Amino acid sequence: MSSDYQTYTAGMHASMQRMMEDMHRDPPSGDADIDFLVMMIPHHWGAVEMARLVLSGGKDPLTRALAEAMISDQNGEIEGMRGRLAALRSALLSSDGEYPLLDGNRGPS
C-alpha cells in the first residue's frame, strides 16, 4: 500500500470520526425537526470532506466528477439546513407555536 493511499485512508477515517462526534455533540432537544438538522449538517459536511479527499488522490474521471458535484450540492444543502435551523430555533424562543416560513430554505414560502 502506498503512503499516499495510507494518507487518504487515514483522512477518511478521521473525517468519519469527526462527523460522528459532531452529530452527537448536542444533546437531544426534544424537537424532531431541530434534532434532524443538528445531525444532518455534520453528516453532509462529512460527505464534503470525504469528496475533497478523493479529489486529492482519486484518478477515475467519473468518481472525481461525482465528488465535485457532491461538494457543490452538499454545501448548498448545509447552507439551507443552517438557515432552517436558525429559523426553527428562533421560533422556539418566541413560543408562538407557529412554524416560520421557509424563505428560500429548500422550498416555497
Provide the β-strand percentage band: under 5%
Topology as H/E string? HHH
Basic shape:
elongated
Unreliable runs, pLDDT <50, ≥5 residues?
104-109
Kindly give the count of domains.
1
Structural class: mainly alpha
User: What gap, in angstroms, lies between the N and C termini?
Assistant: 52 Å
Rounded radius of gyration (Å) = 17 Å
Mean pLDDT: 86
Which key features would you list for this structure?
109 residues, mainly alpha, 3 helices
Polypeptide structure, described:
- This protein is an all-alpha fold and 109 residues long.
- It has one domain.
- It has three helices and no strands.
- The radius of gyration is 17 Å and the shape is elongated.
- The model is unreliable at 104-109 (pLDDT under 50).
Offer a quick outline of the entry.
By secondary structure, this protein is an all-alpha fold. Helices cover 74% and strands 0% of the residues.
Question: What layout of secondary structure does this protein have?
Answer:
Elements: H1 3-23, H2 32-57, H3 61-94
